[in-house]
Specification:
The chain is an all-beta fold and about 350 residues long. It has one helix and 29 strands. The N terminus is likely disordered. Pfam families: Beta-prop_KIB1-4.
Length: about 350
């Protein structure tokens, strides 16, 4: 097979440093930057959502009126463009569409979730990531399942508006922040990568009746050849494994290697494997440097794919990273870009490493 995606000296992509208010021509994808709020006389909170429009390299400000429930809340996750907010005082959790620039500016949707309950060997203070089977429905009878993976072994699932308490599941392994939860629309299952990236465990939507996971071995094929010294070097790097599904149902395993130096992070090394077929519980993954018209978005939120042809300005066959750095890697020409926030971004912003998918009016 062809070469390993190389580690390059970073080329810094200078943003256009434009600031503007939201208009109907803005679609994303976006980076969530921050929310700024201040109390208003009527008891609400006036403020702005700040998003970075990736395609246009613009800072987009959207005026919002925030419910009082979000004033002392922290953004702890994102999925399908919805934010998960945890109250710093009582640890209550709310799903809201306030990050969506097309959503109501005065009355954002607010969906309360049950209070967290810790398991005997789990904790609910630190959230690793969240995932949803779909966007929350407008009606109670429609089905939607929310999954939250905590640092450690606890996984909690519930149906918003329908369940009064979480269904807590003890994962079969210790899961640190590099083990991500995701939902497969094709398989209708929640997937969690085991540490090391050699196995997936999964749960279907009947999690109340059966909490036992199903295991899937990941068998890697056509690994790129490299000297032993290079392989040992990669083994010494910090690595994240991500499982992501395309709109058409294709599955990919992305291995993101990061090298720490006194000067900071160097350009990442990426390896991408496409699922070719599943046999006897084994998912056979083939190394690739061509994902076609797709763009893969990786962050601390639920990872997702976007068809580049559906978002003018996106470069196909690219991977967009947000976490240790904000960057993109174009696999077609082996170009690595780092992004800078545009003029108008506050000097101090909270750590908010979430990609948001394209929004529609």
């Amino acid at each position: 097979m062809s070469r390993l995606l190389p580690k390059l000296s970073p080329l810094i992509h200078k943003s256009s440093r434009i600031v503007r208010s939201f208009s109907s021509s803005t679609t994303g994808p976006y980076v969530s930057i921050c929310s700024m709020m201040e109390p208003s006389p009527d008891g609400g909170n006036l403020g702005q959502v700040m998003l970075f429009n990736l395609v246009n390299s613009e800072l987009v400000r959207t005026d919002k009126t925030y419910p009082i429930e979000l004033y002392d809340a922290q953004l702890v996750g994102a999925s399908h463009g919805w934010g998960f907010f945890s109250n710093r005082r009582d640890r209550s959790v709310i799903i809201s569409d306030c990050l969506n620039p097309y959503a109501s500016k005065s009355e954002p949707k607010m969906i309360p979730l049950p209070f967290f309950t810790g398991m005997y060997s789990g904790q609910t203070e630190v959230v690793c990531n969240v995932a949803m089977s779909s966007s929350p429905p407008d009606q109670d009878e429609e089905d939607c399942v929310v999954g939250i993976k905590f640092l450690g072994r606890q996984l909690s699932l519930c149906r918003p508006r329908r369940d009064l308490r979480w269904t807590n599941i003890l994962a079969p392994f210790e899961s640190w922040d590099s083990s991500k939860l995701m939902y497969s629309k094709k398989d209708q299952r929640f997937y969690l990568l085991a540490p090391g990236g050699n196995y997936l465990c999964s749960w279907d939507l009947n999690f109340k009746e059966d909490k036992k996971p199903k295991f899937h071995e990941l068998v890697l094929h056509n690994l790129p050849s490299m000297p032993r010294s290079r392989r040992k070097q990669l083994d010494s790097y910090c690595r994240e494994d991500h499982w992501v599904e395309s709109p058409s149902g294709e599955s990919f395993l992305v291995k993101w290697y990061s090298e720490y130096t006194p000067e900071g992070f160097k350009a990442p090394t990426l390896m991408v494997f496409r699922e070719e077929y599943t046999q006897d519980g084994r998912k056979n993954m083939v190394y690739t440097e061509d994902i076609g018209d797709l763009c893969i978005f990786i962050s601390k939120g639920e990872d997702f794919c976007v068809e580049a042809s559906s978002c003018p300005g996106l470069h196909r066959n690219s991977i967009f990273l947000h976490g240790r750095l904000l960057a993109t890697f174009n696999m077609s020409n082996s170009t690595f870009w780092c992004y800078e926030y545009p003029l108008g971004t506050p000097a101090k912003i909270p750590y908010c490493p979430y990609w948001l998918p394209p929004f529609s009016p």
